[in-house]
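Follow-up to my post from last week.
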Amino acid sequence: MSILKETGGQKFLGIIQNNAVPILFGIIVLIGIPLSGYSVGYLGQEIVVRIARNSFLIIALLIPIMAGMGLNFGMTLGAMAGQIGLIFMADWGIVGIPGMILAMIISTPISAFLGWMCGKILNMAKGREMVTSYIIGFFINGVYQLIVLYGMGAVIPIKNPALVLPRGYGIRNTVNLITIRKTLDNLFAIKIFGISIPIATMLVITILCIFVIWFRKTKLGQDMRAVGQDMEVARAAGIKVEHTRIVSIVISTILAGYGMIVYLQNIGTLNTYNSHMQIGMFSIAALLVGGATVNKASIGNVFLGVSLFHLMFIVSPTAGKNLIGEAQLGEYFRVFVSYGVITIALVLYEVRRRREKARGGRLLAQEQAENMEENT
Amino acid sequence: MNNLRQFIRSFGWPRIIIGLFLLSLFIIAPFVGVKVSTSLSDTIVRFGMNGVMVLAMVPMIHSGCGLNFGLPLGIIAGLLGGTLAIEYNFVGPVSFLMAIVFSTPFAILFGFGYSKLLNKVKGSEMMIATYVGFSSVAFMCIMWLLLPYKHPTMVWGYAGTGLRTTISTEGYYLHVLTNFLQFKIGKTFMFPTGMILFFALMALLMWAFLHTKRGTAMTAVGSNPVFARASGINIDKVRTLSVILSTWLGAVGILMYQQSFGFIQLYMGPFYMALPAVSAILIGGASVNKASILNVVVGTFLFQGILTMTPSVMNSMIHTDMSEVIRIIVSNGMILYALTRKSEVTR
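User reply:
Got it. Predicted complex:
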């Protein structure tokens, strides 16, 4: 065992480079907060709300990263399944917590099936999982529209006329989820320093975090990490690589479905044809802002990411308005930053992978040089 | 029988299904009261509108950079060219020419930067290209608001600054190619000769380029990078050239589109424009690392044919417009199919 000898400067540079995205974001937020003029209390409340709202969805991304399948852009599949569950729940008129549980139960088999299919397809496209899962999201969106816009009310019975478009079939653009709005958040909420904290939701998220930590230590979790490290080695060790990869996507999709239900119970309305399309992008951007990479992500990244990303989100329209006098500019700015951060993170990951190779080379050269010295 | 099987295998099931689907639409059309001549004419017009953008896929596929999901970058160069031509008050056919001239330096500049980035991330170009496209569109949203355009037809009336979301090309380059040598057969069939000629010219130039020494080098880099390096080809340079070409064709492509469509769409307009072009060339028989001019022609015709025919036929058949959903499923299904094929080259 030998460690690459690096100067202090190189080490410092390494740390900066490894955390470039969170540092950059921290700076943007630090500039933005005073410009926006929001109070600390307001921002604190917003952050708490958004952590409760989004964390579940983002944690759903962790397991495929563990299995070396990159960022699961196919999480929109789970989101769609969750929405279908919510539509049925709204139709059958089940309210409150039982309604949420019902929606979760309905979404599970749909998510599992979609996840299984997604996993199958991704196994056929090894090495380009991300772009493929991205396109799968679009493709299934087409199928989702076919079912929800044309099938529901025509083939699948929907009896509640408030849900159906005036023409007699197809679900309306917005579905009112007032019956479950904030039921989980308000189940048990306490106020600390004027900030109300939805304990029940936080508890659910904590349980999920514990599940993920526990899952890593199980046989299946270990297998996934082995597959993520090196597929061929894992195969040689007798791990069913394809199966493991499919399972990781299935788990992620099911969790994404639940996450979507938690997310929408906080929002209170379902945009039938839009909600799911943005959620994948925002979740992935938030995770990357938290310092995760394509092959490494922890629970810490999730919470740091949600906080920083959503601070930027809250702050930028008003900051843009106060700075240049145009709120629209801030809107565009945050869209740009969301996409930009994903681009930068993806590029940095690729560049870093190359640098690791170069580091390996330097290490080898150093060892050889040392051996030479010993020999002479 | 064996020949037929081989043909099917080389052509691919999805293409045959899509081809048959389009054929059946054309057969059904007259029975449900849709005029075939109008539909055919529309298909040809839309072929001309989109042809060059699909052609823009070819150089990058050839050099092994994969499908150019970053097409919006080229489109932005085209938008800059188009708006600049209007800003400087060029009218009529000259404005189209000037739009191309203005967009060229932007296309070269953007393409150069884009290629530098893609050369750093060999092997996962497609994902990064997608996001380069998205973030550049979002960045330009900010720029369209801030850039000092002054021309009254383009900026918001009340504020005097910031470009409108859609700008009419009427009086500038609207239909300059569509109307060039245009002829009509009967009342309903119109053939946009100028557009097809322009596309043919571009396709011919592309074909000729691919047969020059540089073009052959590009194909070599795409099909076998190790061999290409061994024969002394500078891979990065060739890839750079292909990306610049692709970006420039994207710029020209969007100008073609606008001259027929009649509007310049700014802001989020170019956001999803790469997907139809990508799926069109794939429907035409291209794969992630192989494409020909024939693929472009066949693919654009099939894809645009379906886009034109499904709404009209479906509407008159079942009184529902499902065309949007069908478009999403067909185009993304096609991309998925191509991504899951085993490519012959592994890097």
